[in-house]
Every structure is written in C-alpha cells, then in structure tokens.
Design a protein that fits this description.
The structure holds two protein chains of two kinds.
Chain A lengths: L2 E10 L9 E10 L4 H12 L18 E4 L2 E4 L5 H8 L3 E5 L6 E3 L2 E2 L2 H9 L23 H5 L12 H5 L1 H5 L6 H11 L10 H7 L10 H5 L6 H14 L6 H15 L8 H13 L1 H9 L14 H13 L2
Parallel strand pairs in A: 1-5
Antiparallel strand pairs in A: 1-2, 3-4, 3-5, 6-7
Chain B lengths: L3 E4 L1 H5 L3 H14 L3 E3 L11 H4 L1 H17 L4 E4 L2 H16 L1 H12 L10 E4 H8 L1 H8 L8 E4 L9 H4 L9 H8 L3 E2 L18 H17 L4 E4 L2 H9 L1 H7 L8 E3 H8 L19
Parallel strand pairs in B: 1-2, 1-3, 3-4, 5-6, 5-7, 7-8
The chains are: A alpha+beta, B alpha/beta.
The complex binds iron/sulfur cluster (2 copies) and FE2/S2 (inorganic) cluster.
One iron/sulfur cluster binds next to helix 5 and helix 7 of chain A.
Protein name (chain A): Fumarate reductase iron-sulfur subunit
EC number (chain A): 1.3.5.1
GO molecular function (chain A): 2 iron, 2 sulfur cluster binding; 3 iron, 4 sulfur cluster binding; 4 iron, 4 sulfur cluster binding; electron transfer activity; metal ion binding; succinate dehydrogenase (quinone) activity
C-alpha cells in the first residue's frame, strides 16, 4: 500500500498556559485512505497526548470534527490526507481551529456564539393550529413536492464550517449567519409552521441583505446544504410580503425592470433605482470619473433582439406555481 | 477553430467597455471566432433568483437555448457572475428532469429548447484549454518580464466547486498559469480568493468597501505592480472604487487593476488603446 511522509503543522493554544498560539509539527507515515481525524488520533495516541481536538461519530454525521485544513474548513473524519496533499501539491498540511469563533484549546472552538445566534432566529417549528392537529391521533401529511422546497436545508449537521468562513459574518456583527439563516428559511416554507413568510422579517432584522454572495458557505458545506441559496429565497419572500423599501429589494426590482425594458441591465439608472437620490449622490464622484473615461452608456437602452419573447417568458415564469 | 458564442454580460457592454474591447482585440489577435448573439439577455446576476427562483432559471435557460439553436457548442463569457449564473442554470436543468421539462414547456412556446449540449466557459479557461500555456507563451511578442502580478480570483469563477468544477476552489491556478505565460510573475496573496463585496454594495457600501480595501492592501503588501482579475464586477470595486475602498481601511496608495484580456493583450503587443486601457480609472502606465 502506498505510504507517504507527511508533516502536520498544528496550531496549538492552551489559554490557561500559553500567551499566544504557536505551531507544532508532527511527522508521520500515512497510508493511502487515512483520514485527517485518524492522523490526529494517531498523533494523540502515539506522539502527544496533550493535543486537543473534537470528534465523535467518525461518519460525517455529528458535525463535531470540523477544522481548517490548509486554510479551508473540512470535516476531519470525512477528509482523506492524500486528497488534500494532491490538491495542494505538498507534503505539509496545516491544521488550525475554525475561524470566527474563540479557541477553547488547540483545535477546539467555542460554538456558543454561533448557536446562540441560531436560537435567536427561532429555528424550530411553531405549529400552525390550522394545519397541525393538537391530538396525536391525527397526523400532518407533507407531500414530496412540499418537502422539496426545504429538503436539502434539513441536512445541516451544525458543523459551523460555513459560519467560520462567512464573509458577511466577518464584517457585520448583526449578521444572522449562513446555517442560521438557512434554518430560518427552512421553516418559512414549511406548511406546518405558524409564522411562515413572516419569518422573512427575522431574516431582514438579522441583515440578510448583507450576504455578499461569496458562495463560500455553499462551497465548504460537507452536506451540500448551500445556505446562500436559502438566503436568496428568504430575501425573495421578504419582497413578497412587502419589505420593498430598502436598497437590497430595490436593487432586485431594478434588475427586473431593466430586463423588462430592454433585456439588459441599465447600469446608469441603478444607483437611482436602488437607493434613490442618496444613491446618486454617494456615487457621484466615482460616476463623474467613469463618465470622463467614457465608461457610461446612455440611460435609454436599445432592447435586445427578440425582446418580446423574453418578456413573454418572464411573465410565464412569474405565473408558474 | 470552431465558432464560440460570446456572452459579454452587461458590465462589459456598459461600465466596463474596456473589457469588451480587450476581449475582442485579443480574440482577433489569436484567431478566436467569437460570435455575440444579439438575442442574449442580462443573466440577472443571481438577483432574479430573489424575485423568483424559476424566473432566474427560465431567463438563463433561454440564453443557453439560444446558443444551442444557433448550433454553438460553447458559450464564452468574461464575467465571473454571468459564468456562475449560466453554469448554475445548466447544473439545475441537467440534474432535474422535472425542472427541465417544466422549463422546456415554456421555452417551446417561443420556439426554443434546452437540450443540455452547450457548455459554458470563462474566457481565461477557454484560452488555457484551447491554446495551453506553451502556445500562449509562443504567441507573446512583448513578455511582461519582471512584472509582479496579483492574481485576484474573487468568488464566482471558483465557488462553488460543485457547479463550476474547473479547478479546486481551495487552490486554483488558472490565473497564475496565465500570468506565467505572459512572462510575468504571480505573487501569492492571502486574499486572492476573498470576496470584494460587490454584491452587497447597495445594502452595505461600507462593508463592501472594507473588503475591497483589504484585498487591495494585500496586493500592495505582496509587492504587486498590478492586480489582474477575471471579473468586471470585482474590477469595478478594485479599480473605480479604489480611492473610497482604501480610505475605508486607512490607506492611500494606488495600484492598477487589469482585466485578464488587457494583461494578455499587452503581452501580445496590442496597442493600449485597443485594449481600452485609457478607460481604467487607476492609470495604467505601459
Ligand atoms: S450548512 Fe453545512 S457547513 Fe453549515 S453548519 Fe450546516 S452542515 Fe455545516
Ligand atoms: S454567501 Fe453569504 S452567507 Fe454564504 S458565506 Fe458568503 S456572505 Fe456568508
Ligand atoms: S466526527 Fe462526527 S462529523 Fe466528523
């Protein structure tokens, strides 16, 4: 069996003892197929019993073993050492605790903040008495097409990988967070839920429009949950229930309008449409520079060929159930 | 070479004209037969999904189907967000027969059908696939020797891997390969895969500018002479909004930001005017 010499560079930190974190290197021979978690366990058993990491199920179910491998969050139990070596064309793997959370010790981070935030978003079913019977003799049926709306968002195992790399979380303390907002959406489209669409207001209050659509959460999720997809839909619901007078919603409606008018985005009118006069004024200095450089188009745009057909399709799409 | 459908996207047709100009100039120089379809619409930049998810799919299935109707096998785009939106549509349609049928029922009324035969590529992937680094290097007339270039990927050509699938999202190398092919030197920066914040610019301008500012700062820290990016939206933030972004992070320097075909065009010996370099907000001295 193929074996390779691998150096694991592990970030260590014991807040009770260490002034600051440091890196410690462990060299071992790794056979093909070994996971990062097995390597960690080997180090702990055979080399250094003081190494701290978290793991439980070893089957990518409990979500406890997420750490950073060469900078990217991974479930240690699901990730093979060789795959990562090949990806980075290296024999050195740097293992670090997840970001955006405080380190308890070595690779273990404090989840409390992330889960507190989730709780604030009410991530549980608040039964709708019109749909959910209050006796146990009857049941509420959920049909496959109904389940399809939120099925993938129920697969989250709370590993916090997405939260740890979320761009919006890094720059906005009030941001709801990727997996947290995905849970919110999951209940917003569950017919048994009593709040339903109203939940979009919670998303709004927790800055869902500040998601920068960096797609990191979709990329790192070991369960293919794709929180960003839920956030986009939750935004859509917020517009449907009338939360329209904000830059995010107005930006969306500006796109729709542009497509209906010409089939192309009207960039010149975007500041006005998204943010009104304030938008125009804020962007005036840059706007003037752009005009001087010949970057602006005429505010009246010539429609694309077969524009009529696009309009018909868009209207038809809006009618689809 | 087989004709390819050119999907420039609204930015290249509008505020980033220089991207359009340089793409056309480079394609002429390399003999790439780009055909822009006058029927292509805006992809909606992912924003249409927020109106209604099926709307986003239908609008872009139309774009894909138009290319298929005209017999194209490949759509090439120069915008990262257009790339992701078109590829995501394709991904959903190719993996969900019910959805495909539903969408095709609508398209049929407009004389269109999405079959799933057309592929979508970013321009710089297309260059690497069609020519390869060695061939590109041979075509270079003015190697950009000793130029240090920061490869700024941003988000939508790399993530999510499940949909884009061109190169590992944790360690993409396509831009580095191109930079080397033109004789320049890629510098490795920590923020090359970070977001520029463009898509939250309207709700959160300060946040967006902080992200862009940090990215610019990283490029400076790496000793880069310029930044190159495959995305006109990242370019807008990094170039047009550079002053504002740097102010947000307490800095004030200036660093030129080039579109991929501008960098390549310079190395191919195309005059700067044809590459629209005079339109870049931060002056490019070449
Ligand atoms: S959404 Fe995915 S990455 Fe985020 S916590 Fe849930 S399982 Fe982990
Ligand atoms: S797409 Fe939005 S929610 Fe997901 S990681 Fe990026 S900013 Fe966070
Ligand atoms: S140990 Fe449970 S997910 Fe890895």
């Amino acid at each position: 069996m193929e074996r390779r010499e691998v150096t694991f560079r592990i970030k260590r930190f014991n807040p009770k003892k260490d002034v600051r974190p440091y890196y410690q290197e462990y060299k071992l021979t790794v056979p093909r197929g070994m996971t990062i978690l097995e390597a960690l366990q080997f180090i702990k058993d055979e080399i250094d019993p003081t190494l701290a990491f978290r793991a439980f199920c070893r089957s990518a179910i409990c979500g406890s073993c997420a750490i950073k491998v060469n900078g990217f969050p991974k479930l240690a139990c699901k990730t093979q050492v060789f795959t990562e070596l090949d990806k980075f064309k290296t024999s050195l793997l740097t293992l670090e605790p997840l970001d955006n959370m405080e380190v308890i010790r070595d690779l273990i981070v404090d989840w409390d903040g992330a889960f507190e935030r989730m709780k604030e978003l009410k991530p549980y079913l608040i039964p709708d008495p019109k749909v959910v019977p209050d006796t146990l003799d009857e049941e509420t049926r959920v049909y496959p097409e109904e389940l399809k709306k939120y099925d993938k968002f129920t697969d989250c195992i709370l590993c916090t990988s997405c939260y740890s790399i979320c761009t919006a979380t890094q720059i906005d303390e009030g941001y709801g967070g990727p997996f947290q907002l995905a849970r919110l959406y999951r209940f917003a489209v569950d017919k048994r839920d009593g709040l339903k669409e109203e939940r979009a207001k919670i998303g709004y209050a927790y800055d869902m429009w500040n998601c920068v659509r960096c797609e990191k959460c979709a990329d790192v999720c070991p369960k293919h949950v794709g929180p960003v997809d839920a956030i986009m839909r939750l935004r859509g619901i917020s517009i449907d229930i009338g939360l329209k007078d904000n830059p995010g919603a107005r930006h969306v409606l500006a796109f729709y309008k542009s497509l209906m008018e010409s089939g192309l985005l009207n960039e010149v009118l975007l500041p006005l449409r998204a943010k009104g006069i304030k938008g125009v004024l804020e962007n005036l200095p840059v706007g003037i520079k752009m005009i001087l450089k010949g970057k602006a188009h005429s505010p009246i745009m010539k429609p694309i060929s077969e524009h009529e057909s696009l309009i018909k399709l868009m209207k038809a799409a809006m009618e689809v159930e | 070479m087989e004709m390819v459908a050119f999907y420039p996207g609204c930015a290249a047709k509008g505020a980033s004209k220089e991207l359009y100009e340089s793409t056309v100039a480079v394609s002429e120089e390399l003999g790439i037969p780009l055909v822009e379809l006058p029927q292509f619409s805006c992809c909606g930049a992912g924003v249409l999904e927020e109106v209604k998810d099926i709307l986003d799919i239908v609008v872009n299935a139309r774009n894909l189907a138009l290319a298929e109707r005209e017999g194209f096998k490949t759509i090439v785009t120069v915008c990262s967000t257009c790339l992701l939106v078109l590829k995501r549509t394709k991904y959903h349609l190719d993996n969900d027969d019910d959805l495909k049928e539903k969408v095709n029922n609508l398209l049929e009324k407009e004389g269109l059908e999405y079959k799933g035969e057309v592929d979508v590529k970013h321009f710089h992937w297309f260059l690497l696939d069609e020519f390869g680094e060695d061939e590109l290097r041979r075509r270079v007339k003015k190697p950009l020797q000793s130029l240090k270039v920061y490869p700024y990927y941003g988000c939508h050509t790399v993530r999510p891997y499940e949909i884009l699938g061109y190169e590992p999202s944790e360690n993409p190398q396509s831009l580095e390969r191109l930079i080397r092919a033109v004789g320049a030197q890629p510098v490795s920066g920590e923020r090359r895969l970070e977001c520029c914040g463009f898509h939250a610019f309207w709700p959160n301008p300060n946040g967006s500018m902080i992200l862009t500012g940090l990215n610019l700062k990283d490029a400076k820290l790496c000793g880069a002479d310029c930044i190159v990016t495959p995305c006109p939206l990242c370019h807008m933030n990094l170039d047009a909004n550079q002053g504002r972004a740097l102010k947000e992070v307490g800095e004030s320097f200036s660093i030129p930001v080039l579109h991929v075909p501008q960098l390549l065009g310079l190395a191919l010996g195309i005059e700067p005017k044809r590459l629209g370099l005079h339109r870049n907000i931060v002056p490019v001295n070449c």
